[in-house]
Amino acid sequence: MNRTIVKAEKLRKVYHLFAEEIAAVDGVDLEITAGEFVSIMGPSGSGKTTLLDMIGCLDSISDGTLEILGEDVSSTPESQLVKTRRGQIGFIFQDFSLIPSLTALENLQLGLFLAGKQTNRQKCLEMLDKVHLSHRCNHLPKQMSGGEQQRVAIARALVIEPDFLLADEPTGHLDTATTQTVFALLKEINAQQNLTIILATHDASIGSQTQRTILLKDGKIAS
Amino acid sequence: MNTLSIAVKNLRRKKIRSVLTIGGVSIAVAVLVSLMGFDKGYQQSLTSNIDRMGYQLLVTAKGCPYEAATMMLKGGGGLRYMEQDAYDQIRSDQRIEQITPQLVATVFDPDRAEGEGGFVMFMGIHDSYMKLKPWNKFKSGGWFSSPDADEVIMGFEAAELEQRNVGDEIFIPGKNKILKVAGIFERTGTQDDGIVFMPLQTTQQIFGLPGKLTGVGIKLKDIQTISKVEEDLYEVPGIQVISMAQVRGTILNLIASAKIMANSIAVIAIFIAVIGVINTILMSVFERTQEIGILKAMGASRFQIFRLIWAETILICSLGGIIGNIVALTASRAVEAIIVNILPFTPSGPIVVIYPALLVYALAGAVVLGLIAGLYPSWRACAMVPVEAIRRGE
Q1: Of the candidates B1, B118, B155, B189, which lies 20 to 30 Å from B377 by C-alpha distance?
Q2: For A85, which of B2, B13, B299 is closest by C-beta distance?
């Protein structure tokens, strides 16, 4: 039986706007096991990013239970969540989020540094080679195209050897052709490394290509 | 990859802003180092000047002690005269080891300073002068041939300025008197270098001041008796007695207000520099809100973020400290020239002395400044909640 990566029961995230209570995620039950490639889909405001933030230990939960890699993080304060996410969760963001003053190689080394691991140059070069960007290792983000930047961001997330990967709209800022290239790369990583990938997207063509799709609507799982 | 290398790269992102902030710290440090160097140098030179006068007590005509103190060191117009009889009364005191009378006179020479004119300082001295200043050596020539000879001994710089050698003649403007150069002193590094010395009697005669003196220098056998001697000397009418320690204190008092003003400027410069550093780093933190959120998402701890921002602040202040030290070192002579023009009296010798310990203190101070200035921006950065920081930057 595959190891459980994420297990949520009656998961809720509530925001308070003056006297009004807004539930961004409202009673979500889900379980994701190792090696799965899962997409979380839904329109804007459906709670995709909020759910992803909680799974990524970036945000605390309001109610329910959440286990990440077997650890119950339901009542862990934000200041302690860093220990869970460090070195175990890889993040890919919509706007690539590379550090502009660092080269592609240095961005990868930064990932290792922040994860508390050895900033091994050779390992980073090999990772850049895997995303077919070894020739760009000494380039700054502004010297690369959007697709290349996102591939560097993927390499940065992978180089720390995480237990699972979270990608929030990773192709949101890319054209159709580049979207397919980046998505193909994620599929390849999932297939070759058996790495769990949880991806939030509103692009149905992307969602339909993942193993499982979780459809969110108004913070609840619709299907 | 380490915190320092990331901090360096971050500062290079906004080069102009970083350079301006470092410049602000540099100026503050340079001003501080120059002022501290001035404080040390001025006191050192003044003490050295006073020590090299060779006497511990100065007897002058009654009047303003401030004026008397600067007059003896600097010369100048408006001199007061005492009777030579007073000197005759004092010199028999058994507690005195050496005593020398002096008569200072200044003359305006219209040909000086390339036609702009300037004062020439003449000093009438007695044989005993050399006993009080045994370190005064002759570069060439020697002592006056007689106590009333029409001769001069020139200080090193005075001889260089007038381009005179032993045997040459020197004209006293306004007195229609020509004297012969009997000797030239070696450089002493004191005011003596710029003085033209004459026999006391000759000076009294040329300047029409028979039986007059401007001062009497006294060296005691035992310095412990100075207070008692000073008290006893006041029994002689028409004189005032100034100890050289008092002269030193008096001159330091004269420049105290200028020092307070300068120190205030330094404090303001430091305060502005600190505000500038805090502003720069805080701006940088706010601009990088999303980036800090991403770093936290990637696993950066609060301490790592704090350390990174703190390192940037300390780097700015350290670089500012180093550059400020270099500026202070290279500009010390220029600062000296400015101070000489501002202050009522400046002793000869270096008056801005920048010593290694001062540079170390200044650099350490700049680092401490960075540590303090970086606290708030670093705390703001490390306190950011990652999910909020990421969204705020979107």
Answers
A1: B1
A2: B299
Which A-chain residues 139-158 have CB contacts (< 8 A) with chain B? 156
- Residue A1: pLDDT band (50, 70, 90) is low
Q: Across the interface, which of A82, A100, A156 has its CB nearest the CB of B301?
A: A82
Distance CA B34, CA B259 (A): 12
Residues 6 or more apart whose Cβ sits within 8 Å of residue A112: A118, A119, A120, A123, A124, A159, A160, B1
In a shared domain, residues A84 and A174: yes
Give me the pLDDT at residue A139, please: 92
Judge if pTM exceeds 0.90.
no
Q: Answer yes or no: do B128 and B225 share one domain.
A: yes
How far apart CA B199 and CA B212 sit, in angstroms, is: 13
Q: With an 8 Å Cβ cutoff, are A53 and B2 in contact?
A: no
Question: In chain A, what residues touch B294 (CB-CB under 8 Å)?
Answer: 91, 93, 97
In a domain, B57, yes or no: no
Q: Say if CB B152 and CB B109 are below 8 A apart.
A: no
Residue B179 belongs to domain spanning: 63-237
What φ, ψ does residue A169 adopt, rounded to 5°? 50, 55
User: Domain tally for chain B?
Assistant: 2
SS3 content of chain A, % helix, strand, coil (to 5): 35, 30, 35
- Same-domain pairing of B287 and B374: yes
Q: How many domains does chain A have?
A: 2
> Taking CB atoms and an 8 Å limit, are B9 and A102 in contact across chains?
yes
Together in a domain, B270 and B228: no
pLDDT tens for each residue of B62-88: 877 666 666 656 554 457 888 888 888
Q: What is the DSSP string of B148-187?
A: T-SEEEE-HHHHHHHT--TT-EEEETTTTEEEEEEEEEPP
Nearest to B299 among A97, A106, A115 (CB): A115
As for the ipTM of the complex, it is 0.84
